Give the backbone structure.
Amino acid sequence: MGWQLTDDVEEFRTAADPCLALEPARSTLLLTISESIRVNGAGESVRFGYWRPTEAAPVSAAFLQTPPLRPLLGPMPDRAARELVPVLRAADPSLTSVQGEEACVRAFAAEWTGRSGGWGVSHRVRLFRLGELTPPEPAPAGRARLATAEDLPLLAEWMSAFATDTGQPIRADGDYTRATAERIAAGRLWLWDVAGAPVAMASVTPILAGQARVAPVYTPLRLRGRGYGGAVTAAVSRATRDAGAEQVLLYTDLANPTSNALYQRLGYRPLMDSQVLTFD
């Protein structure tokens, strides 16, 4: 059977959901990104794929790509990763990078580059899962609250700043107002507030297949080092668990020891690592 490509998110989710639900934490990005596209539309071209080893077998691998961004591979056997190479080479021969768990992206990169071996690791992230929540003690001054429409202009600026700080691709129009407004309207964006002024924010994805992911967490540079980021992360984590999430997740950049240590103090425990591999 092999890989099937589609630009239809409903086809993708119908085919891939049983596979993604087997280990929803490891599939968190595929679940949340595809759900966002399902609810809000893609805005740009999108490519989904799902794989069966034989025609009679269930789907056991999936990926998605929103060009010009790199393909995002879900958990998959090495065979599926290797078989994806000719499919994507035909669709996008100028591909320069791939993202996913270490084993499958390395199998993909080795097949893509062949004997040249021309690839390297450009970024490493770690997925954490919340165990016993341990809020900061003592807590910093202030309190947690849900963001409101009045906060929208500031928080749209913070969303843009977060993307810049973390090296993420910036929206083509540079405007994060709509995406931020959607988070506020859904009750998924929390603030740490000191004397009526927001000092940090943390958002969370919708609960899907029992999991939700905290992202992003942001504190303006001038306000860092005061515990606000940890406090708002603890607040949104508690609220998400209270809302029924069986697994509360978050990603950290492995190059940032401060955030990795912070989230572990809050009770997050390492689950798995992912890499971005870039081809020469």
Notes: The helical segments are 9-20, 28-40, 78-91, 102-113, 152-165, 177-185, 228-242, 257-265.
